[in-house]
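Notes from the pairing session

We agreed to fold both candidates in a single pass and log them together. This is the raw record for the first candidate, unedited. Please don't reformat it; downstream parsing expects exactly this layout.

Candidate A
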Amino acid sequence: MSMSLGRVLGAASAVIGAGFLFFLIPWQTDVVPAVGLVPRAFPTIAAVLIIVTGLAQWIKPTGTAIFEGDKVLKAVFVVAACLVATFALEVVGYLYTAPVLVGAIMLLSGERRWLWYIVGLVVMPTFIWLVFEIVLRRPLP
């Protein structure tokens, strides 16, 4: 089995997902007694999906990866924006942070259709807030 970039990225994704599953999620979520859906349910599902897809990429990589400077810079910007948004969540909250982050990523990815901006900046954050805060009664930051 040759060690292609796809395999390296797949293995790295699986390791990061395992780190989320076994360290970060238990550390950052609380156990709430007598609740139908525990707070770590959605993060655990996401971590398991990251592990499974990482392993799939490691076992059977597809295509080739070519690093282009402008795309690498955009990826670095997205990671940095997500880190800044993580800290902003604690300061200003979800309803203000999520639309700004989504809008920045949509601009960076080249989206120019105003309808999709409305969906990304207003509809989706509001829907997510309603599901977690109202339906599931789980507070968002």
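Candidate B (folded immediately after A)
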Amino acid sequence: MNQELTTAAAEKEVKANGSLLLGTSLALVSMILIPAFATRFGLGASLTGALRIAMMKASNQALRG
């Protein structure tokens, strides 16, 4: 029984680490890469802002699990 609890805790930790990694990468994309690509391709400020908001919402959802 103790080993089952340890296995369940390890699986939960792996899922939490995956969510954290995904959420962090989406936040990085939102803060750095989207503005860089927008500048490079000449996208407007409103479109850039909308893309950043969408990525931050996705990041938040990933962190919640």
